Amino acid sequence: MQGLESFLPLIALIAIVYFLLILPQQRQAKAHKQMLTELKKGDKIITSGGLFGEVTNVEEDFIKIKLSDNVIVKIVKEYILKKVDE
Question: What does CATH list as the number for 40-86?
Answer without folding.
Answer: 2.30.30
